[in-house]
Design goal:
Its EC number is 3.4.21.53. Homohexamer. Organized in a ring with a central cavity. Keywords: ATP-binding, Cytoplasm, Hydrolase, Nucleotide-binding, Protease, Serine protease, Stress response. By secondary structure, this protein is of the alpha/beta class. The chain has a seven-stranded mixed beta sheet. The chain is elongated.
């Protein structure tokens, strides 16, 4: 079919539409006034939303107070026409004439009505005009105008544009039927032969912005105007298609959800009628009742749970109270009421488990086996709180796991470090949003038995705040006299914690509240000696690293000598965590060589350690010798260390004591006590009693950047002062530790094991210890005592005889 035939068919089809369906809006006196009788001067109304087109019939709303007089004057005129000009008022009621556009549309005014403060009239667009001159530049605006007539064109290009515009309008009507009413109005007044008016109509029905629409209104050539209108129509068509796609997608989702909902509801009703299933509420009640089967509930607990089950059965599933009650029953029925695991009371097996998991710590293992044996004899392990105290990395947490495994009990661990909220222990009140039970209830729910091993890590780091004091709340949970009736705030029911075995860990005892510490059985882990670290590295750390990283021993091996070198010169801390990190570093660097193909097998020896780890962290400790110089023994968080103390005479102008070496308060007091003791007993010990009367003595502890404190250097300082006064050096290879009183008593000190290990590392074989520490020495492993000559002193004269007179004293 040719373009002319298609155009004729469209004309005929639309003429029929106009005759059958359109509503023609006419003036009582006629359809429209002839062009030649339009007035040369027009009242101008500004319209700010979008320009008005000759092909439009549309209501216009204006402010009644401002334009009522103007519209009355227009209505009195025979033509009853007004000029509608686009002006961006930007919120102003009366724009200036400079803000009006030059091209406007003259319109007939029909059916003006006033509603409240607005005046509405029906505007029937007639033709374009151009403002020639403003006769009144303020409201009411009056202007002299020139009318612009469209040039009718029936050429092929106009027909093609008309066909394209009509085709786009048809598609738009199919996508959005609302546009059909605008088309009916247009067909009632014009035909499709008027190409210019068709372009105006096409532009007027789009949702383009005001500037784009004004470009169409101001374009006088018909072909150019039709091109612009067709472009706007195409954009509108794309928008309508996209809107339909979005609507269809949303409707599909909604329909699917509605369909699924209705089908599920129908299925529930059908299943309920057939007795196949119950509703959610009935299902919840039956689930909670099923959980209680096989459990032994105390009467008070059973009564409370039954009350809550009854409440749940009558509540509506959608009510907030239903959710609260359901959560409460979920927790309360999940607890292992009366459910216990069977303990393994085989002490030999317990010993084997501890030996297989840990090297060294023989005294600790003995203490744990004793505890387990007592529980086995009694028939139950509850009612005790073990507190494992020691520096980081000595295996406190892993010992707790080993105890649980040896007893065949469930294990639950949580850390108390930094805990500040009391509700973490005893739970929140049930009335709070997001309320939860405390940690002990959560532990019982997870392990599903009433007699687990519960480990409380970092109990020395519990804090306190305005939210409560968790340490005080722990008393009720841990105290064997109270925890059989532990009250959790959330459940508000008495819970029996007496069957659980509690194991706590701490790095120090100072920050643990004394009422809590009083209820614990303290086991101290002082750390490992070199041989124990070597065994741990060989049996546990190195094989574990190889297995974790999928390496074989034939690919990567490390010698015992290399391990010992690392332990002595790189990892002297009490635990083995630092040693583990160093071994990881060696493994990483070795794997690089294996992966790059440089080597297929690596054997790490002593010579390779410095290449892999760098220079040693610890230098060999050299014992200082001379008059006024004595080697002491000290305990640090890294283990034992030798501590040389030097005394020197500064001048004879005055007497006194000067202390240096970054000493703590306790150590300063020890120095003053030693000075006072030696000063007051000068006649008994020295050849020149007047030495201290006219001497300023300087007492120094080397490595002044390192803080030093503790009550264990009293006899060492007194010996250094005595050596200075007598001008007699202390014998070589001798070290000592012990506190001194003003009356010369030698008091016990701690850390004997670590101090002796430090002496052996420095090749010191003769030691002076306080007599009260004899028992501590006797309990040490033979590997520590081997090759050591130990003297025990009760009073300082014993020390003086051993040091200067070379007598055997109380020789071990």
């Amino acid at each position: 079919m040719s373009d002319d035939e298609q155009y004729s068919d469209l004309q005929e089809e639309n003429s029929v539409m106009a005759e059958e369906e359109s509503v023609v809006i006419t003036d009582p006196k006629g359809l429209a006034l002839p062009d030649d009788v339009l007035p040369e001067t027009l009242f101008i109304l500004p319209i700010s939303s979008r320009p008005f087109f000759p092909a439009q019939v549309q209501p216009v709303m204006v402010d009644a107070e401002q334009w009522e007089d103007t519209l009355e004057r227009i209505a009195e005129h025979p033509q009853a026409v007004v000029g509608l000009v686009y002006a961006d008022k930007e919120g102003k009621k009366s724009p200036s004439v400079d803000e009006f556009r030059s091209i406007g549309c003259v319109a007939r005014v029909h059916k003006a009505e006033k509603q409240n403060d607005k005046l509405t009239f029906l505007a029937q667009g007639v033709k374009r005009f151009e403002v020639i001159e403003w006769l009144s530049e303020t409201a009411p605006y009056l202007a002299r105008v020139r009318y612009i007539n469209d040039v009718k064109s029936n050429d092929d290009e106009s027909k093609a544009y008309s066909i394209a515009i009509l085709d786009a309008i048809k598609q738009l009507i199919r996508l959005n039927p609302l546009f059909s009413e605008d088309l009916r109005q247009y067909l009632g007044r014009f035909s499709f032969n008027e190409s210019g008016l068709l372009a105006d109509f096409a532009a007027s029905i789009t949702s383009a912005d005001a500037e784009e629409l004004y470009d169409v209104l101001a374009t006088i050539p018909v072909h150019a105007r039709m091109h612009l209108a067709l472009t706007l129509l195409r954009k509108e068509l794309e928008i309508a298609r996209l809107q339909n796609e979005i609507s269809a997608e949303v409707n599909d989702k909604i329909s699917k959800h509605q369909r699924d909902f209705f089908l599920k509801e129908q299925l529930k009703i059908i299943q309920k009628e057939l007795g196949i299933s119950k509703d959610d509420r009935t299902s919840d009640v039956e689930t909670f009742k099923a959980r209680l089967e096989g459990k032994t509930l105390p009467k008070s607990v059973n009564d409370k749970i039954q009350d809550e089950l009854h409440k749940l059965s009558i509540l509506e599933a959608g009510s907030p109270e239903y959710g609260v009650t359901r959560n409460y029953l979920d927790w309360s029925t999940s607890l292992p009421w009366g459910v216990h695991s069977k303990d393994n009371l085989d002490i030999k097996l317990a010993r084997e488990v501890l030996e297989s998991h840990h090297a060294g710590l023989g005294d600790i293992k003995d203490r744990i086996v004793e505890f387990l044996a007592l529980g086995a004899h009694r028939g139950e392990m509850g009612g005790s709180i073990l507190l494992l105290v020691g520096p980081p990395g000595v295996g406190k947490t892993s010992i707790g796991k080993s105890i649980a495994e040896s007893l065949n009990r469930k294990f639950y661990r949580f850390s108390l470090g930094g805990m500040r909220d009391e509700a973490e222990i005893k739970g929140h009140r049930r009335t709070y949003i997001g309320a939860l039970p405390g940690k002990f209830v959560q532990a019982l729910k997870d392990v599903e038995v009433e007699n687990p091993v519960i480990m409380l890590d970092e109990i020395d780091k519990v804090g306190s705040s305005f939210q409560g004091d968790p340490a005080s709340s722990l008393l009720e949970a841990l105290d064997p006299e109270q925890n059989s009736e532990f009250l959790d705030h959330y459940l508000d029911m008495r819970i029996d914690l007496s069957k659980a075995l509690f194991i706590c860990t701490a790095n120090q005892l100072d920050t643990i509240p004394s009422p809590l510490l009083d209820r614990m059985d303290v086991i101290r882990l002082s750390g490992y000696i070199g041989d124990e670290k070597l065994a741990i590295a060989k049996q546990h750390l190195w094989p574990k690293l190889l297995k974790k990283n999928k390496l074989l021993k034939k690919q990567l091996n490390i010698t015992d000598a290399a391990l010992r070198h690392i332990i002595e010169h790189y990892a002297r801390e009490a635990g083995v965590r630092g040693l583990d990190k160093l071994l990881q570093k060696i493994l990483r660097k070795s794997v690089v060589e294996l992966m790059t193909g440089e080597k297929s097998h690596i054997n790490v020896g002593v010579k390779d350690v410095e290449t892999l780890l760098g220079m040693p962290y610890f230098r060999p400790e050299k014992t200082l010798q001379g008059v006024g110089v004595v080697t002491g023994l000290a305990w640090t968080s890294m283990g034992g260390a030798t501590l040389p103390i030097e005394a020197n005479r500064v001048h004879e102008l005055t007497r006194g004591l000067k202390l240096t070496g970054k000493l703590g308060d306790v150590m300063k007091e020890s120095a003053e006590i030693a000075y006072s003791y030696v000063f007051s007993h000068a006649k008994s010990y020295q050849k020149a009693p007047e030495f201290f009367d006219k001497s300023l003595v300087h007492l120094h502890v080397p490595e002044g950047a390192t803080p030093k404190d503790g009550p264990s250097a009293g006899i060492t300082m007194a010996t250094a002062l005595l050596s200075l006064a007598r001008n007699e050096p202390v014998r070589r290879g001798l070290a000592m530790t012990g506190e001194l009183t003003l009356t010369g008593q030698v008091l016990a000190v701690g850390g004997i094991r670590e101090k002796l290990i430090a002496a052996k590392r420095s090749k010191i074989t003769e030691i002076i210890l306080p007599e009260p520490n004899r028992r501590d020495f006797e309990e040490l492993p033979e590997s520590v005592k081997e090759g050591m000559t130990v003297h025990f002193a009760e009073r300082f004269p014993d020390v003086e005889k051993i040091v200067f007179n070379r007598t055997n004293g109380h020789l071990h």
